[in-house]
Every structure is written in structure tokens, then in C-alpha cells.
Amino acid sequence: MRAWVAFLDTSNLLLRRIDQQLREDGGLTQPQYELLTRLAEAPQRRLRMAELADLLVTSRSGLTYQVTQLEKLGLVHRQAFQDDDRGVLATLTEDGLDALQRAAPGHVRVVRENLVDLLSHEQLLALGDAFDVARTHLRTTQRRD
Fold it and tell me: Where exactly are the transmembrane stretches of this chain (predicted)?
């Protein structure tokens, strides 16, 4: 129970700090920052909306809302997928990449100050190993549900 409550408290507090920093530095929310990051890491800075929703562990309607907000800001562009009329691609724009690069240093600072730098190398490795196990299990069972 101690581990569970510590996980809940820490993740909620850290996400609140991250969200505050992102709003101040980049005018972005944490989900928007994560969305932009996933697109920046993708080949040609674009992904199918369905794939992006799976990566972000969000509903397609929730993703559509976030992409619409980012599209209004000129940070993301949507277009139909060439080979599939039903498929839609989300593409990170140059302005989106600029916004991500402006927010990233503060994001890294907040994560380091409030998590990474507080733990020893061994603790970070153990934490990574533990979350890898849980993530693999959850992603595997999610596909079956």
C-alpha cells in the first residue's frame, strides 16, 4: 500500500509541476507537450491518428480534441492518408517544433529537479525496470480487451 500511495502522490504532484511549467514556458498542457514530442520523434514528424492515440494511451476523441487545439495554434497539421480515405495523419509543423524546443529545457529541468536527481543510479534503474514490466503487461492486456 505504501508503494501504491507513493506512486499516486508522486505522479500527481510531478504531473502538476510539469503542467505548470509547460503552461508558463510554452503555453502548452502536459498532454499537448507529449503529443508534440511523439510527433517529433516519428519518421517525417508524422503519425496516423490511431497510432498516435495508442502511443498516448488516450481515446481517439480525446486525441482529436488535442490535435484540434494544436492545429488552431498552427503547431500540428492534419491531412488524409494517401492510401486510406479513413486514415488521418497528424504532422508536426515547424512552429510546433519551435514550441516544443522552447518548452523542452524547462520540462527537463522540472523532471530532473523533482525526480531524476533525487534518486541514485540504482534506484533509477530499478524504477525503470519495474515500470517496464508493468507497461508491457498493461499494453499487452489492453490489446486483448
Answer: none
CA atoms of 120 and 28, how far apart (whole Å): 31
Residue 44 zone, left/alpha/beta (φ > 0; ψ -120 to 50; rest): left
Integer Cα distance of 93 and 99 in angstroms: 10
Positions in the chain short of pLDDT 70: 84-86, 143-145
Query: Residue 66: which residues within 8 A CB-CB, separation 6 or more?
Result: 31, 32, 35, 58
The CATH number covering residue 99 comes to 1.10.10.10
Residue with cell 504532422: 91
pTM of the predicted model as reported, rounded to 2 decimal places = 0.86
126 assigned to some structural domain: no
